């Protein structure tokens, strides 16, 4: 079985029919539901909070992958854990105490991850590997769906993959490597070949009338990757 996971971002779904959209994209083969939380402070856009997450939980038969683009993070970590999040990731510059925020996520029973913006150096997570279940690399600047994949991200994916592989070799524990922004059928294979295993896709999936067609095409592309 493939270890690749596709995490559709409902940022590009029809907000007037969110429950139905979540159900439909899971029926089409989604492994996770990517939930983009923006606060109009850390990023210049405003989306949805824990009440919407909680309302969608009954429609989500797969883990909800909450991406916090908010500052500060700790209060919302608690609210999203209560709202049914499965994974919670945040941007390290938005927390005063990264190690503490990561521990908080795990203590609340969720998987924990750090998100690196295109300009953020990869050394920010190397001292907290034991606290991580996921590293999320942004391949666009956070704030909006529908942007183009930044090619330099491929170099960074390879760097992070090497660190995570070395860590897995030492500990036997695998940390997921997720990539977010501008992923489509046309580029998912090269992103996987660089070392990503979890793929966020918003506009590529929700702009197509049949979500299963896009997800199936993505899986066909992934099946051709040697890694
Ligand atoms: C951007 C969000 C992404 C976004 C991805 O800040 O974190 O999850 O929705 O959208 P696409 O796939 O359209 O680039
Ligand atoms: Zn996201």
From TrEMBL:
Co-factor note (free text): Binds 1 divalent metal cation per subunit.
Pathway: Carbohydrate degradation
Binding positions (substrate): 9, 67, 143-146, 180-182, 202-203
Enzyme Commission number(s) of this protein: 5.1.3.1
Entry keywords, A to Z: Calvin cycle, Carbohydrate metabolism, Cobalt, Isomerase, Manganese, Metal-binding, Zinc
Gene Ontology terms describing biological process: pentose catabolic process; pentose-phosphate shunt; reductive pentose-phosphate cycle
Active site: 36, 180
Catalytic reaction equation(s): D-ribulose 5-phosphate = D-xylulose 5-phosphate
Obligatory cofactor(s): Co(2+); Mn(2+); Zn(2+); a divalent metal cation
GO molecular function: D-ribulose-phosphate 3-epimerase activity; metal ion binding
UniProt-listed Gene3D superfamilies: Aldolase class I (3.20.20.70)
GO CC list: cytoplasm
Residues that, per the record, bind a divalent metal cation: 34, 36, 67, 180
PROSITE patterns reported in the protein's UniProt record: RIBUL_P_3_EPIMER_1, RIBUL_P_3_EPIMER_2
Family as reported in the entry's similarity comment: Belongs to the ribulose-phosphate 3-epimerase family.
Functional note: Catalyzes the reversible epimerization of D-ribulose 5-phosphate to D-xylulose 5-phosphate.
Protein name: Ribulose-phosphate 3-epimerase
Species whose genome carries this gene: Neisseria iguanae
Encoding gene (name): rpe
């Amino acid at each position: 079985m493939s270890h690749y996971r596709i995490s559709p971002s409902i940022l590009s779904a029809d907000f007037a029919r969110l429950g139905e959209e979540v159900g439909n994209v899971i029926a089409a083969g989604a492994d996770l539901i990517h939930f983009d939380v923006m606060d109009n402070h850390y990023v210049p856009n405003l989306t949805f909070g824990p009440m919407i997450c909680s309302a969608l939980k009954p429609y989500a038969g797969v883990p909800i992958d909450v991406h916090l683009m908010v500052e500060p993070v700790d209060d919302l970590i608690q609210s999203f854990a209560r709202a049914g999040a499965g994974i919670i990731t945040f941007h390290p510059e938005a927390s005063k105490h990264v190690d503490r925020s990561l521990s908080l996520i795990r203590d609340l029973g969720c998987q924990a991850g750090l998100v690196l913006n295109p300009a953020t150096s990869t050394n920010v997570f190397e001292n907290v590997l034991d606290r991580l279940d996921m590293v999320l690399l942004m391949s666009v600047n956070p704030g909006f769906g529908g942007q183009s994949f930044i090619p330099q991200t491929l170099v960074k994916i390879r760097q992070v993959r090497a660190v995570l592989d070395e860590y897995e070799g030492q500990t036997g524990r695998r940390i997921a490597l997720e990539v977010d922004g501008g992923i489509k059928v046309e580029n998912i294979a090269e992103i996987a070949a660089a070392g990503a295993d979890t793929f966020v896709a918003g506009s590529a999936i929700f702009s197509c009338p049949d979500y299963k067609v896009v997800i199936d095409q993505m899986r066909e592309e992934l099946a051709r990757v040697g890694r």
